[in-house]
Amino acid sequence: MDPLVVLFGFGVGILIGLTGVDRVPVAFLRPALGCVLLGSALGVLTKAGLDLPAWTIVGVPAAVGAAAWLVHRLQFRKTTG
Asked: Can you give the pTM of this predicted structure?
């Protein structure tokens, strides 16, 4: 891969991250990052030789994210209700 392409991609990612850092609540950001890291870990495990179907790499982090959202919603209702 061309180093300039990688450098440009990093720059764009940093700019997007800096513009959205004040707008994204922490209650959303932490589970979202956890789901991204889980998906990345599953992808790395496939590179190491573990035979995982593509739906697992996408579905497991999505299910974890849905569960985190549900827990957050239930806790929010408990504190306001």
From this structure: 0.70
d(CA 31, CA 35): 6
Give residue-wise pLDDT tens across range 18-66. 887 788 887 888 888 999 999 999 999 999 999 999 999 999 999 999 9
Could you state, in order of their start, the residue ranges of all structural domains in the chain?
Answer: 25-80
One-letter amino acid of 63: A
CB within 8 Å of 43: residues ≥ 6 apart: 57
Rounded distance, CA 57 to CA 36, Å?
Answer: 10
Residue with tokens 């739906």: 55
The residue count for the chain: 81
> What angle (nearest 5°) sits at the alpha carbon of residue 41, between those of residues 39 and 45?
115
Could you tell me where the DSSP H helices lie in the chain? 3-20, 26-47, 54-80
